[in-house]
Write a sequence for this structure.
């Protein structure tokens, strides 16, 4: 017998759950792309996108995924042969570095493995060693979706300032925007990138690049930029089509408008608080289960854990078995252990992730945790008792506070 019939819950770290308001906004006939409400609505998106990233800077919208924003950020600021520093934990810093190599950049990697946050001391040493200031940019991932680490972007700015290094600070906020606290201007970030399918709660297909005046000056230095990636007209269009380098992503824009309305209504500070509480509930359950079993948080230090995704280690074959059980019998889809082991390696089956980003609330998280606890019991995977109760206590304690 399966108990999975009913509404399924996609608890993966993106694409995230889409609100009904977003789905309804997108379920409409194609609009006029030459005049009328679409043009007026799109102009109104810009100040709200700035507000989400906490910046007064400019923003360019692309029809792409997060990988496209990696390329857009570099295409507008780096010339072939320029040097970039990439401190990386997990998979996605290496992905951005690979895109940089593909654009002919000279990449210096600082690899911090899969379980630790960036070591600011090592970053500082690399910057101090660059006495000629040949490093043009530091490419940092705020939250790595594969490992669930949350890196100290504000600390990176402090390191750049302390060393007097002029490199641009670029932040990949694809997994963190509108989930984890991020302050582009206050933290001195020059380029921020994100995408539509996680904290912004819209289907995959839109990418965003916010940039400071310093980054705009870097764009002038390099001269020619591939026409599609050039952010100049996208950020300050003279004609509507220039926002997108061609035809507008019409229905995504309607969905984005609805999502930004939801974000504005709740308030970004309240959204950060909600994600923090729900993350702490998940951690409480997982730490309780792991007290007498193989389950282990991938990031041990709470101060460096994302509030949007939690990566877990449980040993092969338990990870794949548990994911399959909760999907087949409880209607909950968990994330694979992305990048933690090669797909052909038996160890690949020893990991899973819980996505808790965007349109999530207490009952969704408690339901997912209840399904996981049921799966641990059904599969006879050793675990400590009371994990779900511990999560409930975290949530109850938050709600009951004056």
């Amino acid at each position: 017998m399966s108990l999975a019939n009913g509404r399924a819950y996609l608890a993966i770290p993106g694409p995230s759950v889409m609100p009904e308001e977003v789905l309804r906004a997108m379920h409409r006939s194609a609009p006029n792309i030459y005049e009328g409400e679409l043009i007026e609505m799109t102009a109104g998106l810009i100040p709200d996108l700035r507000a989400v990233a906490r910046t007064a800077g400019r923003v360019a919208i692309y029809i792409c995924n997060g990988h496209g924003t990696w390329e857009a950020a570099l295409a507008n600021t780096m010339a072939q042969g320029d040097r970039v520093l990439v401190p990386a934990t997990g998979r996605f810093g290496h992905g951005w570095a690979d895109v940089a190599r593909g654009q002919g950049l000279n990449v210096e990697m600082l690899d911090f493995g899969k379980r630790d946050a960036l070591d600011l001391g090592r970053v500082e040493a690399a910057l101090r060693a660059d006495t000629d200031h040949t490093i043009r940019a530091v490419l940092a991932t705020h939250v790595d979706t594969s490992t669930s680490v949350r890196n100290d972007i504000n600390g990176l700015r402090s390191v750049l300032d302390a060393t007097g290094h002029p490199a641009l600070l670029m932040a990949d906020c694809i997994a963190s925007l509108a989930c984890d606290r991020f302050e582009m201007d206050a933290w001195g970030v020059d380029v921020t990138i994100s995408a539509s399918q996680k904290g912004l709660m819209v289907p995959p297909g839109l990418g965003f690049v916010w940039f400071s005046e310093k980054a705009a000056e870097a764009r002038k230095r390099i001269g020619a930029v591939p026409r599609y990636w050039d952010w100049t007209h996208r950020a300050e269009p003279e004609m509507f089509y220039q926002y997108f380098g061609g035809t507008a992503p019409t229905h995504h824009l309607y969905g984005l408008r609805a999502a930004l309305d939801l974000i504005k209504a709740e308030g970004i500070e309240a959204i950060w608080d909600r994600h923090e509480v729900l993350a702490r509930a998940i951690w409480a359950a997982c730490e309780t289960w792991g007290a007498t079993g193989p389950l282990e948080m991938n990031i041990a230090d709470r101060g460096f854990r994302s509030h949007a995704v939690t990566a877990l280690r449980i040993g092969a074959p338990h990870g794949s078995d548990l994911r399959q059980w909760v999907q087949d019998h409880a209607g909950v889809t968990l994330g694979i252990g992305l990048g933690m082991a090669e797909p052909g390696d038996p160890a690949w089956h020893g990991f899973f992730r819980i996505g808790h980003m965007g349109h999530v609330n207490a009952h969704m998280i408690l339901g997912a945790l209840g399904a996981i606890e049921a799966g641990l019991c059904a599969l006879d995977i050793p675990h400590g008792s009371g994990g779900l109760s511990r999560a409930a206590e975290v949530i109850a304690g938050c709600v009951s506070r004056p």
